[in-house]
Amino acid sequence: MTIETNDIAPKEKAANFLDEIIKESVARGQTRVQTRFPPEPNGYLHIGHAKSICINFGLAKKYGGLCNLRFDDTNPVKEDTEYVDSIKRDIRWLGFEWAEERYASDYFDQLYEWAVVLIKKGLAYVDDQTQEQIREGRGTVSEPGKESPWRNRSVEENLDLFERMRKGEFADGEKVLRAKIDMAHPNMLFRDPIMYRIIHAEHHRTGDKWCIYPMYDYAHGQSDSIERITHSICTLEFDVHRPLYDWFIEALEIFPSHQYEFARLNLTHTMMSKRRLLKLVQDGVVMGWDDPRMPTICALRRKGYTPASVRAFAEMVGVAKRDNVIDLGKLEYCVREDLNRVAERRMAVLNPVKVVITNYPEGKVEHFTCINNPEDESAGTRQVPFSRELYIERDDFMENPPKKYFRLQPGGEVRLRYAYLIKCEEVIKDAEGNIVELRCTYDPESGNGSSSDGRRVKGVIHWVSAAHAVEAEVRLFNPLFVTEDPNDVEEGKTWEDNLNPESMVVTRGWIEPSLRGAAAGTPFQFERVGYFCPDTDTTDEHPVFNRTVTLKDSWAKINK
Ligand code: ATP
Ligand code: MG
């Protein structure tokens, strides 16, 4: 895809062999590039789909072509309009718009007619065998299959039976339509693949019009052909299907779409199987499909990822022919880079200790001007209240610090970001010896970065005014799985044993007052802490913030 001006420039420009193929065909005079993204509306899109979306829409855009959104809705049992809506929302959120919205079910009449054409050519037949018998008859890689006893039915009988299949005269599983190819073919998919099966089920778009539904191998290529797709891009596991894809198109003498395969995206510490993600939702392990720990696009959005960061990630990982696993750290790198440019800065203290400035007048409040985004002047400034009692991070004070500790310490001086220099005069502890308060003095001449005598102070820490700060729930997310490969299990254990018990740590924070009422999803950098955004659960009374990503890559190193 082309990187738009508002995209971050990836540091690593990865190879994209599909781009090379299209470039060559354009150079050879092929003028039209038409792709499609073909999701099955049976679940939510995940980051792997995002890669496919970026490839399909991105390549079409780059070469002045078009990309359709085609719902591969050939299985009425698993599909739902809820998924159709979420898929459309996610693609648009990623920044793409389809040329046409199509459904494989739009083509059921055409597919049926073409099946009749194949029957008439003697290239398809109705088989009465059970699913079990068909499976057994298929043979193995080393042994040829067995021909069905129904394989040599006459064209007339096949036409009659196929029509009666459509009319609903038979029960589920009683008959199938199979292509008549070669039961000894070395490619198992060629051993008379099933084209249609009977499913008496209501379809989310065609209702009860049909009770026979086409199989993937028969529906997909023909749908591509109807839409005159030039580059039918799919994941690597479909490469064995390509000869069959070509066989149907040749047998039907229709528009010759071509299939190209690329390696699917795998991410460390992440699971992308729809079935297993569904289990996590159903078992209540996560809050839903959009739980920020999920690899779904809606979860990334809720967590605070930007569309540009996901596109940059797709660009960074490139398009290759060999399967590999990408470090989750790369995705986090991309969002960090983008948020650094776009997120406004705020101050928030997650693990507070109180600071009392003993020489600051009681009841006095002043406001300091803070820069919203040093990377973007147009983001302007805001006023942050300051008073006698503040919170700072507990980590920013040490009673017995090592050398080169530049933050607050007994007798030491530190700069409060945008505000004064303070010096710690006294440490107050409770009966158990926990520090409960730090008594400090301030230099009244030191506001806004200055000091009374030009002395320089190395440490700068963030703060909030205790009386003005708003208490918030803060959700800290960590990888959902502790192991790089969630499927890497010891004997007697399952992938679920690899779930990270600390994937979500709920804590509290004190945020500066300007954050009250911020809309869900608005990205912020809490200075020195990390990137955060209000969660969809946030309210004015009970603000809830998600940690999108830490400021630095911390966990990746720990896990290596
Ligand atoms: P299913 O098991 O339900 O078929 P699927 O993940 O293949 O799941 P689809 O809705 O069929 O889901 O996928 C739509 C498109 O996204 C397909 O072209 C598929 O190849 C692509 N896709 C799916 N998973 C990945 C992935 N991890 N990386 C890249 N592309 C993917
Ligand atoms: Mg699929």
What key phrases describe this protein's structure?
single chain, 560 residues, alpha/beta, seven-stranded mixed β-sheet, 27 strands, elongated, binds adenosine-5'-triphosphate, binds magnesium ion
How would you characterize the overall build of this protein?
The chain is an alpha/beta fold. It contains 13 helices and 27 strands. Helix 2 (47-62) links the parallel strand 1 and strand 2 (66-71). 40% of the residues are buried. Adenosine-5'-triphosphate binds next to helix 2 and strand 8.
Compact overview of the structure:
With 560 residues, this protein is α/β, with parallel strands linked by helices. 25% of the residues lie in helices and 23% in strands. Helix 2 crosses helix 11 and helix 7 crosses helix 8.
Question: Separation of termini?
Answer: 32 Å
SS content category? alpha/beta
> Could you give a short account of the major beta sheet?
7 strands, mixed
Radius of gyration equals: 31 Å
Mean pLDDT: 94
Helix content: 25-40%
Q: Can you tell me the overall shape?
A: elongated
Give the spatial strand order of the biggest sheet: 12-25-26-27-23-24-13
Name every ligand kind in the structure.
Answer: adenosine-5'-triphosphate, magnesium ion
The beta-strand count equals 27
Beta fraction: 15-25%
Query: Helical element count?
Result: 13
Low-pLDDT stretches are 1-11
